[in-house]
Amino acid sequence: MAAGHAHKLYRHGHSPVHGLPPHTKLAAAFAFVIVVVSTPREAMWAFALYAVLLAGVAWAARVPPGFLLKRLLIEVPFVAFAVLLPFVAEGERVEVLGMSLSVSGLWGAWNVLAKGTLGVATSVLLAATTELRELLLGLQRLKLPPLLVQIASFMIRYGDVITDEMRRMRIARESRGFEARGIRHWGVLAKSAGALFIRSYERGERVHLAMVSRGYAGSMPVIDEVTASRAQWSHAFALPVAALVVCLLGWTL
């Protein structure tokens, strides 16, 4: 299932984090994000401790800071939204550097930035230490509906197929001297998009027929039975358990 497909977020390694079973890492990452979201936004020190915990995981996984920070750029749209909140939110106002900002908007911006950044960093670390095929096996092990797992598997596989087809079509156009420079070339690009859709649909039909001819009846066979020991579960849940302690202190202090 999605065998042989590597993604750009994955960083090959042999660290203790890489060696954990995928379903333990998925469960731990989900639990950690739930704890972070449940933390009161006023407890700023708690989010600093969460960042330290994630930095410890990155160190154990041997993921360089540059690798992590570069992939955190995916949250830029959310950062832009957070920056606008103090200007558009209503309620009590406060002067900051000569600008009138909403107090509730400032808290909302902090809430989005802190929790969003920690959530994205958790996802990046999970992807950096777990291959796509292992993630799918982990979801299967966690009893996610099989149909959703199959949809995710096919989406990953055909994403690569369509990307390769687009690359070949681009090379074919450029080999014939075509270069899109203005609106008058949109027609050619539109025809290419239509041809890409037809080729992708036909490829899907052929693959489905091949699967049916090999006995496919709506479910994928389990090739690898991934299991985890009690020690591996304990190592994986060290992060969310430590975060839970911080969260409880944030509500009580």
Automatic annotation (TrEMBL):
Alphabetized PANTHER family for the sequence: SLL0384 PROTEIN (PTHR34857:SF2)
Name listed for the protein in its UniProt record: Cobalt ECF transporter T component CbiQ
Annotated compartments: Cell membrane
Lineage summary: Bacteria, Bacillati, Actinomycetota, Actinomycetes, Kitasatosporales
Transmembrane annotation, as ranges: 20-37, 43-60
Membrane topology: Multi-pass membrane protein
InterPro entries: ABC/ECF_trnsptr_transmembrane (IPR003339), ECF_CbiQ (IPR012809), ECF_transporter_component (IPR051611)
Source superkingdom: Bacteria
A family per Pfam: CbiQ
Taxonomic source organism: Streptomyces broussonetiae
UniProt keyword annotations, A-Z: Cell membrane, Membrane, Transmembrane, Transmembrane helix
Gene, per the UniProt record: cbiQ
Main location: membrane
